[in-house]
Amino acid sequence: MDPTEAPAVEQLETFPNPRPGREFAIEIVCPEFTSVCPKTGHPDFGTITYTYTPGPLCVELKSLKLYLHRFRTQGIFYEQVTNRLLDDFVAACRPVRCKVVSVWTPRGGISTTVTCTYEAKG
Predict the structure, then answer these.
(1) For this structure, is 116 an active site residue?
(2) What is the pLDDT of residues 68-120, one digit of tens each?
(3) Model pTM?
(4) Cβ-contact 76, 122 below 8 angstroms
(5) Which DSSP state fits 121?
(6) Which of 44, 88, 98, 116 is catalytic?
(7) Which residues contact 7 (CB under 8 A, 6 or more apart)?
(8) What is the number of other CB atoms lying within 10 angstroms of the CB of residue 107?
(9) Which of 30, 37, 58, 87 is an active site residue?
(10) pLDDT digits (tens, 9 = 90+) for 20-69
(11) Alpha carbons within 13 A on the beta-carbon side of 82
């Protein structure tokens, strides 16, 4: 796997929910997320937190880690990457609900937090 390739939803591996009859929450914290500012080319550093209630599938953590690493060379705004992380996660896992929060290291005295949510219909 080439870490300079673009991230793709197909990288996210899953496994069957071990307790499909019970709602429970899973929180995954990724404190070393890196992407690139598309305006300046400087690295952006953030913490990504996924909180989800699994549907039929759970995400396999190593595949998530490798998927996230592929953003290190991507020029992408905070808002765009946070929404992309949620969209790809939902496509791969089909959760009951999911929230992705990105908290970015301050730059120039400004800090940013982006929160995106999803809830399955029906």
Answers:
(1) no
(2) 999 999 999 999 999 999 999 999 999 999 999 999 999 889 999 999 999 99
(3) 0.94
(4) no
(5) -
(6) 44
(7) 67, 68, 70, 71, 74, 84, 88
(8) 13
(9) 37
(10) 999 999 999 999 999 999 999 999 999 999 999 999 999 999 999 999 99
(11) 24
